[in-house]
Amino acid sequence: MKKLYFLIITLLVIFTGYIILTNIAKDYNAEYNINGFIINEEYNNDLKNYTFFIEYQDKIFPLITTTKYTKSRNLINNIEKYEEEAIICLAVTINESLHPICYQEDELIDFRLIPKFTSEIFADLFQEYSNKVTDNYESLKIFNYLDNSYYIWNYKGYYYLNAEQQRTFKLIERDDYHNSFGHKINDYLITPNYDQRFYFDELLVFSNKNKELRSFKLGEEISYNSYYMGNYGDDLYLVDRKSQKQYKINIKRNRLQIIGSESKDGSWYNNGWESISISKLVNKEYIFIKDQIFNYELSDGTLYYLIGENKVKVSLNVVDHIVYTHEDEVYYIINNTLYMFSLFNGEVKLIENYEWSFNHLNKIFIFK
User: Fold this and answer.
1) Cα separation of 157 and 170, whole Å?
2) Tens of pLDDT along 267-306?
3) Angle 351-327-43 from CA coordinates, rounded to 5°
4) Between 20 and 30 A from 368 (CA), which of 86, 150, 237, 243?
5) How many CB atoms lie within 10 A of CB 259?
6) Which residue among 66, 95, 125 closes a domain?
7) Domains in the chain: how many in total?
8) Which domain holds residue 262?
9) Within this chain, do residues 113 and 205 fall inside the same structural domain, yes or no?
10) pTM above 0.85, yes or no
11) What residues in the chain have per-residue pLDDT under 50?
């Protein structure tokens, strides 16, 4: 009886271990063929995403999804081809979800930029948004809010607006045209006290959650010859070239630490922490590098969505600069208007501000 009991326990442990091991998410690469289309399927366990590269007529049709991991492989169920003159589109089905991938001539292009495919073949995937002004506040014309809150610099503070309210927050007395050191970290929007002309030792901290403004006295004089390296968790990292110091600033706890100086190496995040000399940090901008699923690139006024080495054009307009990215969303300025593109929504017109016609680097902060 004991032997039988031991055997049953052993088999249960082996079976349980097998189930756990076969369901643990792990990197993999698989190649298969559907209707003559050669598919390379990859899973990245660090980023939790699938990437597909489909080969057809010497072209690569790329696709990224964040579908939940499954132990199954060969996830593409079906591929249909639509071809007309210089346009080729593949309609890729994964778990009953349709993903169009299109070429126009030899250029990958978002399917919503091809009118016929938007209005006819993929009409069910097209989201309609207003191209007319739906609201006004001060000098701003609002077309769509998209459930966001926007903070727009007005030289002395911010215009705050969302679908429910609009307000103005005055922070300083003296005009500052660029707000070069305004910065967003988690729920906080921070702005130096620009009334301090040659350096600042005070940050004006605004909480998006409770709409409260407070002062953070740094206890250090920081010059305007500085730059932000990036955020990590609740901490913001800043390099002051003039004093040759690196600071770690915790906005939530009102805490500032000197973590790099002439006598002590600083830190840089490059998909992992690295020591780096203060002379390097001072002589060149070292911005934090973090791998992410969705990446965008602005090249000679053209905005692209990047998938591996492939570039997908997402706007037909000449883009001035990228304002902000969040997951698959990218916000950008065209002339005097803020736009957003996402894989779900396509390109959406948001806010027009005549000031951006001649000062398009004016800071805009977006909270989800």
Assistant:
1) 4
2) 999 999 999 999 999 999 999 999 999 999 999 999 999 9
3) 155
4) 237
5) 15
6) 125
7) 2
8) 135-367
9) no
10) yes
11) 13, 17-21
pLDDT in tens, 20-49: 445 578 999 999 999 899 999 999 999 999
pLDDT for the residue numbered 9: 60
Q: Which CATH number fits the domain that encloses residue 361?
A: 2.120.10
Are 78 and 167 within one domain?
Answer: no
* 198 contact partners, CB below 8 Å, separation of at least 6: 223, 224
Task: Report the 10 Å Cβ neighbour count for 270.
Answer: 12
User: According to the model, what pLDDT value does residue 271 have?
Assistant: 96
The answer on 48 and 182 residing in a single domain is no
Of the candidates 94, 31, 24, the residue with the CA atom closest to the CA atom of residue 66: 94
Q: Are residues 89 and 159 located together in one domain of the fold?
A: no
Asked if residue 326 belongs to a domain, the reply is yes
Q: What is the pLDDT of residue 5?
A: 58
Token pair of 218, please? 């740094």
Query: N- to C-terminal Cα distance for the chain?
Result: 62
**Which residues are CB-neighbours of 143 under 8 A, at least 6 positions away?**
129, 130, 131, 132, 133, 134, 348, 349, 350, 351, 352
pLDDT at 10: 56
Joined tokens for residue 311: 């570039």
